[in-house]
Hints:
The chain is of the alpha/beta class and 458 residues long.
Amino acid sequence: MALAGMSAMPLLGACATTGAARSDPAVEEATIAELQTAMQAGRLSAESLTEIYIARIQAIDRAGPALKAVQEINPDALAIARALDEERRGRRVRGPLHGIPVLLKDNIATADKMETTAGALALVGARPREDSTTARRLREAGAVILGKASMSEWAYFKSAPGSSGWSARHGQSRNPYALDRSPCGSSSGSAIAVAANLVVVAIGTETDGSIICPSGVNGVVGLKPTVGLTSRAGVIPISATQDTVGPFGRTVADAATVLGALTGADPRDAATRAGAGKAQVEYTRFLDPGGLRGARIGVPRDGYFGYSPKADAVANQAIAAMREQGAVILDPVKVPNFDRAALTASELIVFMYEFKAGVNAYLADLAPGARVRTLEEIIDFNKRNAAENLPYFGQEWLERSQAKGALTETEYVEALEKCRRLGGREGLDAAMDQNRLDALVAPTTTPAWTIDLVNGDA
């Protein structure tokens, strides 16, 4: 976290390329734009910035409070940063991410010296044949891939119950604001790292809450894009219907900057074709201080509020601020056909079928040398190594998924149609259309709960 009263920019001059930069906390809370200004002025380099983050990871992620947000540091990070500094000296700056360190969630493949495991010991040594589209696009944008962020194992689709932020490979990660509290998940490490100033921005994935929940309880900005806006190619999957890749930052502007580097059609992901011609490459241009003026904002009280009085109070303050900024607030707005139990039951059926199909396809495409090639082999590996892989909880979701059939099964087809109908055209989409809304707003989550490796998440 930032030191009280510390302003990032006046101190950036102290962290050029000297050895002192390795432990200088001056870049805490600095935005991408501020870091770029310092690098352009010669007060900071990509190499020294990378050194600062590595030193901070060693100090409070590996040691000290041991946040366990960073799964591993990229051994090539400093070399990449030096090469990008050389490009800058040659007057080649690729864009706003040039020289900016970024962490990737451990389910986003990189064809380099790092692992891609989704937190699972079974996937240690399982090498992808090529970079994920996310990693490739970030490299092309000039980002320094600093390392891999820890995550809830198998994106929290392993056991029921389980503990958010726990994996067999890295243990339990912790909320930097209260070490006994959950960081939520499954993009736990990505949110923790940004909140604790281990990196300025990070990348996560979401299937159901895995960006918005950890961003909420760790106090950062998380942006969950519409499916198809960003490519999932090279991401260890749960659900082809709902998986998406998105950024974490400390500011909306930083999240918008990173999003622009991630979007676009990708022949490796058919879902991105739906966004062809709609994706932007510069989302920061929409950051208009007067942008709420005249916007119609709906507040769905029933089913979305009432879980935490404190969270509701904060949400109500934000709604009042939107009204003061000129938004037209419709409160309350009813979401038709809202049935949380029915939606959850159908969603889980979809997940189990799609997880089995998606994981088997991902494993089959790995380079030679992987110790597992099917979901069934993962389940068997965990059983044979239960002390390390199943010390607190089981693997019920893996086993239930393995028991499912093909994506042509009636159970799957009907569940998918129900999700799309009740969640979309007869649910949220209907509420938006009937009330001519620009957006719906609601609390992100409840306050962070206590980490519990006996009973699991509350």
